[in-house]
Amino acid sequence: MRPVRIALFIAALGAFQAQAGVFDDDEARRQIADAKAKAEARFDQQAKAQLDLAGQIQQQAEEISRLRGQIETLGYELETARKRQQDFYLDLDTRLRKFEAAATAAAPVAPDSAPSAKPANDPAKEGSEYEAALNQFKAGKYKEAAAGFGAYVQKYPDSSLAPNAQYWLGNAWYAQRDCKRAIEAQSVVTGKYADSAKAPDAWLAIATCQQELNNPTAAKRSLDTVIAKFPGTPAAEAARDRLKKK
To answer: Quick check: pTM over 0.70?
Structure first.
């Protein structure tokens, strides 16, 4: 009888262990499934975050590209405006010089009452040398133009074209991005040739250089000087426009 009981106990124990094994497998599967679901959820969340970040990077890249395009456009427009202004002044300078030459040729020549202590300059030679320097400037050869205009004002300081040459000397230095020398040259126009037609434009050029040298106070003072000294001139109007934009 006893052996039968032992056999039944062993069978029951085996069935219990089998059932326990089934329960362990189900729990393991459930845990694996939960872990897999959590991993997939984290992956989805990370993927979404990466997509959002990629979208933000793309938007920033597009914004940078747009801003770069605007900067390039503004730079082109500024350079175009500067070129138009330069061409305008060159054309105006040429017209005024021709008018002055015609007026000089038409003026009556007074007889000499006494020998002159200083020989008169040759207007044709002066004009030729001035024209040569101006052509260098027109061709974009600013270094050569600066040398030509500098030599001209040294050689012909009392010439009717001296204020113009001094003004273009300042512009030639500015074109080489040497604002210090440009201001020095234009200051001669506003000082020595203060009554010339180039004086108000020289003040404007000085203000431009002062602004580029991060000296807005001095630039404003120069613009105010244009308005005060030369009211009703195009230079004064340009100075007012600049002050409004500040």
So the answer is: no
